[in-house]
Amino acid sequence: MASINDRDAPKVHLYAEHLQNIRTLSIQASLATVSNAETKATLSADYDYLTLEHEGESANIRLPISLGSHNDATLTIPAAPTKDLSFRLNLEEKSGQSSLLGRGAPDSENVIPWMASGLISETALSCSACQTEIVHRGQIRQWRDLPSEGWAEMMDFWHCHKPDESHVHSGEASNTGRGFASNSKLIALQAVGLVGPMDFLLSTTDCTNLEASTSLFPSMLVCTGCKTCLGIFDSSAQGNKLRKSALSVSTSSSSQTLRLPLEKWLSSALLTAAESQGVRRLVVYAASAESELPKHVMRLWIFAPDLSVSSSAADSPEATRVVKVLYRDGVPADVAKSGSMGGSEGELEFSQAEWHELRRLLDNSAGLLPEKARSFQQWSVALLKRFVQEDIESHGS
Questions:
Q1: What's the longest Cα–Cα distance across the chain?
Q2: Same-domain pairing of 237 and 322
């Protein structure tokens, strides 16, 4: 995405975000030249849209939240000439007015599509790249949600480290019978689909049109139709671990086969990792086939997990729900230091393809932000689209 410093960049760049927790609408703008007496900010008659005009150029966005109940809101251009404009509007609810939780209202839930509750025995899975069917309709008779990552370790920690109780580890076998010991493990079962936030774990006998890759990663599984990587063979679970982002889902013979954007799957993975590890900062890395050290590393800070934003540089002037992320380059040693219990940074591993796509999306999203908002101290600032409830409702899962 082009920078606003580029020769063909617009003279006016307008951006707004709804800060729901402090009931504030933050508006920022970048101008190619300093503001003057002709620079003008105008709200539409219904207080839903904002237009900024400067030297014959204009930018228009639909605000992330309607100002219909705040028709006393004004946007005054400062008298001192400047290339960077900013406005903050307090959105205290007024007596008799409906809640501000209207259009695009953020919530704290990490929305994850295609969990077990939305899948039925008629569900079929296909390669999203070429639509080659991987799991035939009726092959999976039951779908079950997997426990969260690290469930066995956390339960063992809780069981074995209760304060004020003496304990030994000789009861590990009995813990296993209860299903929460650290040596417990999940095994793929025929006709049962195990569902995680990012993957399906399936018996090899329930899958078709998959073959082992000839790459440096022998466990990698690719589609026989187009050779796209769809997942890996998980030797510990004795099954195929297929990535949701590489698949399309059809829940009945009368429904179309649907896929969801990789960008939203990646942001969902970040939110899931942060939630399960109890952190907001992650070391995100891609493994290397040639070395035990990770090949690509970046440090990432989930600054705001759910924001509604509008940008005149976006494909549409409509508001979009995003995760606001701060990120910077990391080194392999960061991975070794992260993920320890009680630490301030968690970790998340992606495939090399996913890592590079995430980095590309982060870098390119800078074009949505005014130039002054693209960095914070030593961090770069980025926006990632995220799943919302409508993604689940519109896809029937």
A1: 79
A2: no
**Strand 142-145 relative to strand 247-250: parallel, antiparallel, unpaired?**
unpaired
Cβ proximity of 59 and 10 under 8 Å: yes
Q: Would you say 16 and 309 are in contact if contact means Cβ atoms under 8 Å apart? A: yes
Q: Is 342 a residue whose pLDDT tops 60?
A: no
In the sheet that 133-135 helps form, which strands lie side by side, from edge to edge?
Answer: 133-135, 124-127, 247-250
Q: Kindly tell me if the per-residue pLDDT of 167 is higher than 60.
A: no
Rounded to whole angstroms, the Cα distance separating 378 from 363 reads 15
Q: What is the mean pLDDT of residues 25-54?
A: 92
Q: What is the percent of the chain where pLDDT is above 70? A: 78
Q: What integer best gives the mean pLDDT of the chain?
A: 83
d(CA 76, CA 37): 11
Q: How far apart are CA 24 and CA 84, in angstroms?
A: 19
- pTM score: 0.85
Band the pLDDT of 302: cuts 50, 70, 90: very high
pLDDT of amino acid 62:
93
Residue 256: DSSP 8-state: P
**pLDDT (0 to 100) of residue 204:** 97
Tell me the HSE value of 363 on the side-chain side, using a 13 A CA sphere: 9
Number of compact structural domains in the chain = 3
CB count, 10 Å around CB of 146?
Answer: 17
For 383, the domain range is 262-392
Residue that finishes a domain, picked among 259, 282, 302: 259
CA 35 to mean position of chain CA atoms: 37
Distance CA 246, CA 259 (A): 8
- Residues 273, 219, single domain; the answer is no
Residues 43 and 78 in one domain: yes
205 and 75 assigned to the same domain = no
If pLDDT is split at 50, 70 and 90, which confidence band does 90 have? confident
Residue 76 forms part of a structural domain: yes
